[in-house]
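Notebook entry, cofactor series.
This is the third protein in the set we're modelling with a bound small molecule. For this one the ligand is adenosine-5'-triphosphate. I'm keeping the input format identical across the series so the outputs can be compared line by line later. Sequence and SMILES below, as received.
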Amino acid sequence: MKMLDIEQLTKYFNRGTPSEVVALDHVSLAMEEKEFLVIIGSNGSGKTTLLNLIAGNHFADAGSLSIQNIDVTSQPDYARSKWIARVFQDPLKGTAPDLSILENFRLASLRTKSKSLRTGINQLFRKRVQELVSVLNLGLENKLDTLVGKLSGGQRQALTLLMATMDQPKLLLLDEPTAALDPRSSAVVMELANRIITVQQLTAILVTHNLKQALDYGSRLIMMDSGQIKRDFQQIEKSTLQLADMQQWFYESAAV
Amino acid sequence: MGFGIYISLRIFNIPDITTDGSYTLGAAVTASLLTQGIALPLVVLIVMGAGALAGACTGIIHTRFKIQPLLAGILVMTSLYSVNLNIMGRSNLPLLGVENAAGMFRFLPSIQTQWLLLLLVIIIFLVAFLSWFLKTDFGVSMRATGNSELMVRALGVNTQNMKVIGLAMANALTSVSGFLVCQFQQFSDINMGIGIVIFGLGSVMMGEAFISILKAPSILKRLLGVVLGCVVFRLIVAVALDLGINPNWLKAVTAVIVLLVVGIPNLKKSSI
Ligand SMILES: Nc1ncnc2c1ncn2[C@@H]1O[C@H](COP(=O)(O)OP(=O)(O)OP(=O)(O)O)[C@@H](O)[C@H]1O
Ligand SMILES: [Mg+2]
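Returned structure with ligand:
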């Protein structure tokens, strides 16, 4: 079964005005289960827009989109959360600053469930979060009642990743999860993401500008440019790619 | 009312102007029903229902018609003025000789102590209720809605419905305070709600200022902070009046106090 099936997806911004942009131009893309897709492409090439359309933040102007053979083209983001978990490009967006770490995790644990009038934060839940967070080695496991707004962007991004993966999402979307992090935290978060994806056998999409990451991780690589998919490499071809090749593509696309 | 504002402001990031109207609405409904001899418990329920409806209207205007919350509030507040006028039938409705809520505590010697006890009971009840509610899974999602909308949507919350429900709750609370005040002062007046939102804002912000000293305040402490804020704010206004400020300037004085409470910390920050 296909996990994700995108057909001729098109998205305009400011349509009909002088500042019209075609952010996505008839993009078709199919993903098998357990595929780990890496997307690269220059700024403004439509990577985030693609993820936003998959997650349902924007609706497509044309084309269709289905997840596990269910057509979700007209479903809003909160309905698609049944399948999709996200880590946003902006580390501040993935967590609620005025809620404690524990409360943020509680919400994340309810991604696919209803939010009822139960007090879901109990000792058992606290234990579970403690164990999850201790993996990060950031000392946060003893600060579960701290408001998330008091943490650094890197810490928040690491938490968002854990939150997104705590209940085995069908499809995990990572939009430059490490762009705002220092080299060390960046390596920690990326390693963790890779481990979770491999161990839990998740279907995942990673957007990155870090070409080394793009080489090291994932089972398939695509490159986007001007709202289109320009290159697509499956695992075997991907493993033969060199950093220099990829850098070359960026100069080529800029020259056009 | 402080709690109503607390919900709409902190939880949704929207200062909800509907408050001005739903406060009077609570009073108007109370006055007209009580003078018709309807029993108190029923009146409270109707008042809450009316307030909730007003809040829901603001919520729906904001979420469905994509109108800014401030404007949505103004629209509902303005139309409530007519609604209230029609409910009362005239601009001022006295409540003389009608049984009031504090009458429950008739065994206490004076009217003042009866009211004090009533308010105490209500406050304790509300604090207990809200501190439970805001910690439930639903309550946590509601608090997150004003905080990080994109995130809660990604976690499967329909934030539009959440806003409507939250505004309904907030305005139900506000109209209950109209219910109480109307009985306390023994009349309902079409203009009694003007500027009340500022009063509530001032109280909540004052409460937050107290609470911000604490490191990781629990919900309970925050709610108590709001109560404290309301009391202190009242006191400050009372003192201001005592100092001989003309009561005609009352609203301006409240506005200035809110400005001081909100603005001074910012002034300090920017000077660093
Ligand atoms: N909300 C919006 N309103 C108008 N235009 C938008 C909006 N979001 C994106 N765009 C435009 O759509 C195009 C694609 O943007 P997108 O954010 O998808 O790029 P990206 O590949 O994620 O870039 P980056 O690497 O900088 O994150 C850009 O031209 C951008 O200006
Ligand atoms: Mg982007």
